[in-house]
Description:
4 helices, alpha+beta, five-stranded antiparallel β-sheet
Amino acid sequence: MESLLEFVGTVHIFLGPYRGNPIGLYLQRDGEVCRISPRIYPWNQTIGVGESPNKAAADFEQKWKETTGLAPEMYTGPHWEGGIKPEKPKPAAPPKPAPASAAKPPSAPAESKAPSSSEASLANDPVLSPSSNSEKAS
Length: 138
């Protein structure tokens, strides 16, 4: 047996400079599934489905933004009644980075490090080179 419809909220659509009549949103419970949708054509094509009224409300809001083709300034709502609060799904957790010790290959010895540009310029300059200074002193 089909359950009765429950009024759960409204959406207002602006027609030019005028605010149109509110469009009623209704909840229908079928066993384990809840559906929220307007009953007026052409808006009745958008149906929010979920395990609970709050999940169906979140699904309806998402589908309303995606499928109606209305700019955000052309409507207000949905405005929910009866304590319905859209229950957004939790975002997926970011992937955990691999342990640092397992990800890094063993580093090369420090002595094989290439000299920086300032060290290279000092080595090529005969006046500032440490080896040329030690040769002059001996």
